[in-house]
Amino acid sequence: MVWISRICYRKYGNFVDNLRLYVRGGSGGMGLPRLGGQGGKGGDVWVVAQKEMTLKRVKDKYPQKRFIAGVGTNSSVRALKGQKGEDQEVLAPPGITVTNDDGKVLSELNTEGDRVLVARGGQGGSYHSEFLPSKGQTRQIRLDLKLIADLGLVGFPNAGKSSLLTALSHAKPQIASYISVADLPGLIEGAHMNRGMGHQFLKHVERTRQLLFVVDVCGFQLASKTPFRSAFEAVQLLIKELELYKEDLPCKPAVLVVNKMDLPDAEDKLTELQEQLLNPHEFSHLLPDDMVPKNNMVFRHVVPISAATGFGIAHLKTCIRQSLDKDASMATESLHCDRLQALRGAVPAKNTLTWGPTASV
């Protein structure tokens, strides 16, 4: 059985995906001139990845968004070397990119326990500084959440993404194997230009391992003043939106889910879509020239389902698992090849003569 772990960010009003923080390392402690004592170093400020943490929790708990480490203790007759000030930790969710105000990336924290030093504490006073301490480092930093998940749901509004995710995650987990799916707001045409939730959506898709396209087999119309789009047109527009945001996004492994197979004429619509996907260039005239993808996207699986009735859900889970396992196998094979190549490079071949001043024959 496959357990689908739901990561839902549809309610953007309660969702925080970036924060700007003030961080300051602690000042060092005073040295003791007459005995040559050294003050303690100021504490450091770290950003640490922790599961179950969210940026909203950080914002709510620290509304002033200020993190200041402890001051090092002064040198004294009883303790010539002062103690280091207490470190300050900023707990943040995995999948965080930490940057400074200039946009320079300080680190990416992708797994629980990853940490980065963002503000160093000042040195304690010593002989070399005339026993005067230095102040801690002061910075403005940004925490930007770029979600990490196995799958990112990609689809226009009303494609049935929420219903699909509910159907996928309905079964209770019985084994440790699970898949995380990012449930995000639906794209709209022009998302690459930041229309709707454009960039907030697309930057999360960027950090998913694979994509799960979801389309309505009968097509859709976003509003009365917008054109009707068939299932094929929806697929092509979704690919183009990803491509315009970042050209290599459509290169991610992807599965296409054709939803609402319980509707009338769904079988005929599915057959038509499958034919169009085999020869997309023959049907490019259905779209405006500037919305035709540069490259054809080949889906690993095209799976017809009905999220409403449960039809095809079990098969979809199998396809998802196969696709993820394929990538894991390829990654393992690549790692083994790299290690073998490194070993071959490190061990000189037998019976090889080295000519030059140090050669021996």
Automatic annotation (TrEMBL):
<dbReference type="GO" id="GO:0003924">
    <property type="term" value="F:GTPase activity"/>
</dbReference>
<dbReference type="InterPro" id="IPR006169">
    <property type="entry name" value="GTP1_OBG_dom"/>
</dbReference>
<keyword id="KW-0547">Nucleotide-binding</keyword>
<dbReference type="InterPro" id="IPR045086">
    <property type="entry name" value="OBG_GTPase"/>
</dbReference>
<dbReference type="GO" id="GO:0042254">
    <property type="term" value="P:ribosome biogenesis"/>
</dbReference>
<dbReference type="InterPro" id="IPR006073">
    <property type="entry name" value="GTP-bd"/>
</dbReference>
<dbReference type="GO" id="GO:0005739">
    <property type="term" value="C:mitochondrion"/>
</dbReference>
<feature type="domain" description="OBG-type G">
    <location>
        <begin position="149"/>
        <end position="325"/>
    </location>
</feature>
<protein>
    <recommendedName>
        <fullName>GTP-binding protein 10</fullName>
    </recommendedName>
</protein>
<keyword id="KW-0342">GTP-binding</keyword>
<dbReference type="InterPro" id="IPR036726">
    <property type="entry name" value="GTP1_OBG_dom_sf"/>
</dbReference>
<dbReference type="InterPro" id="IPR027417">
    <property type="entry name" value="P-loop_NTPase"/>
</dbReference>
<dbReference type="Pfam" id="PF01926">
    <property type="entry name" value="MMR_HSR1"/>
</dbReference>
<dbReference type="Pfam" id="PF01018">
    <property type="entry name" value="GTP1_OBG"/>
</dbReference>
<dbReference type="InterPro" id="IPR031167">
    <property type="entry name" value="G_OBG"/>
</dbReference>
<dbReference type="GO" id="GO:0005525">
    <property type="term" value="F:GTP binding"/>
</dbReference>
<feature type="domain" description="Obg">
    <location>
        <begin position="13"/>
        <end position="148"/>
    </location>
</feature>
